[in-house]
Amino acid sequence: MLWLGPLGNHGGGMRFTAKIALTLALATISSTHLTAVADSMVDKAIVDAYNFRHQQHAQKALATLQAVEKKAGSNAAFHAERGAIYVALDQYDAAMKDCNLAIKLDPKLSDAYDRRAFCYTVSNQLDKAIADYTTAIKLNPKSPMPYHNRAIAYRKLGKLKEANSDMKHYLTLRPAREQQNISAALSNDALRLEREGDVKGAINYLKFQVNDNSPAGLPLHLGTLYNKVGDLANAMKNADQAVRKADKENDTATGLSARNLRATIYSAQRNYVAAIKDCSAVIEQSTKSEPVSALKTAAKAQRAIALTLRAECYQKTQKLPAALNDINQVIKENPDLNAAYETRGAIYLASGKQHKEAIADFSKAISSYPNLAKARMGRAESYAALKQYQSAIKDLSVVIDKSPKDASDAYTSRARIYQILHDNKKAEADLQKAHQAQPD
To answer: How far apart are CA 337 and CA 357, in angstroms?
Structure first.
């Protein structure tokens, strides 16, 4: 007879372990565009709360969700994640309430059934617990802990055959879970170095950890770091490995992030056809049903990244209707995503006609990100096209003051406006400063 250990604790047993923790941690760094999608307040709070919970900061996780509760409305993932936090805090009545609501809103969230099953087990309602664990397993058969905990419930009811069968499934799945735990620990060490400002140290640490047997998350993380320091060759090498590994492991969540990273690199290399292909794959895969609430939220973010990046690639290849269609879809699906308006403003500007619309969209982006250089530069160009020169000068001056890497372009643009205004002295001074501000 297989030994049945204690009921999986609600810190480790009820969560879907390090695989998701690693994926969600990488969701914050996997693309240059994720800053733009991170201001979807409820979605960001769900991901942040998930990470806090996995770092054993349940109260901080709860506070993160409570701060956006009024905006959450009928967001099933919000209630599923809060239910998990309540379980971690031993507040089972509150957890049951949130899990019930999550299941009502989205009957395909496996983790909501898993947490509710734990609550039933605590109250010794074992038949109900088994029913919920069974549903969780049907929705997410690769998650090991529901098998483990259902086995214990079967054992308590004297159903030893069923208990042994479940424990065999658990032991089969456990090695992959343990490998993910190891990978998550390595990635967390690299994240700590990065938070301390030592990105190169994080790269040197991870590059000795990534090998042919590494789960997809590690090369994804390493590729992201290489991309951050501008080493596109090594970034692409690791992004390719992450995509291949994710496909082989059937790890959709990591695959979405890896393809978005690779698309970002392709775009930087001006290989827009390849970038569009990867973005299209992400957009298609993100629509597939995801049984875990936090990963479902992360997939939504990756979809927004892919649509935004594809819109930018379409714009750069002069396919403006397709670009506008993509970014309008982002805004429709993420109405509080103010940064998406920057991309649509750029599309309007590229049309050469819709300057008023461009100004409105750039202004919306700037309302959330006052120092966003691209939006300021775009709005300045639109103002100049409408002969609103002082407004254009004001925006360019902000860029000069707040974004040194964009200062040269801003000085050049401002010099042109001064030339239009026949202020040649200021124009000449700005041209000299533009030359001095050019990066080495």
So the answer is: 17
What are φ and ψ of residue 418, in 5° steps? -60, -35
Q: What is the distance of C-alpha 363 from the center of its chain? A: 25
Task: For residue 414, give the nearest of 372, 428, 403 by alpha carbon.
Answer: 428
Residue 34 and residue 11: Cα distance in Å, rounded?
A: 29
- The CA distance from 416 to 411, in Å, is 9
10 Å Cβ neighbour count for 93?
Answer: 9
- Residue 325: closest CA among 280, 385, 278: 280
Looking at per-residue confidence, does 212 or 117 come out higher? 117
Tokens of 46: 């769900």
Asked if 266 contacts 9 with a C-beta cutoff of 8 angstroms, the reply is: no
With 0-12 / 13-18 / 19 or more C-beta atoms within 10 angstroms meaning exposed / middle / buried, residue 289 is: exposed
At 28 the three-state DSSP class reads coil
201, 48, 268, 193: CA torsion to nearest 10: 0
Alpha-carbon Rg for the chain, nearest whole angstrom, is 25
Q: Are 296 and 77 in contact (CB under 8 A)?
A: yes
How many CB atoms are closer than 10 A to CB 87?
29
Residues 6+ apart with CB under 8 A from 316: 270, 272
Domain range annotation of the chain: 17-259
Tokens coding 54: 């996995």
The C-alpha atoms of residue 359 and residue 365 are separated, in whole angstroms, by 10
CA distances 304 to 86, 136, 367, Å, are 30, 28, 20
* pLDDT per position as a tens digit, 250-276: 888 899 999 999 999 999 999 999 999
CATH fold of 17-259 reads: 1.25.40
What crossing angle do the helices spanning 407-420 and 389-402 adopt, rounded to 10°? 160
Ranges of beta strands (E only) in 159-261 are none
For residue 85, the surrounding DSSP H or E stretch is: helix 76-88
Cβ burial, residue 318 (10 Å; 0-12/13-18/19+): exposed
Tell me how far CA of residue 431 lies from CA of 164, 249, 267, 382, 411, in angstroms.
Answer: 78, 55, 30, 21, 6
In percent, how much of the chain has pLDDT > 90? 70
The closest alpha carbon to 21, from 215, 163, 289, 310, belongs to 215
Please say whether the beta carbons of 253 and 20 come within 8 A.
yes
- Tens digit of pLDDT for each residue in 315-328? 999 999 999 999 99
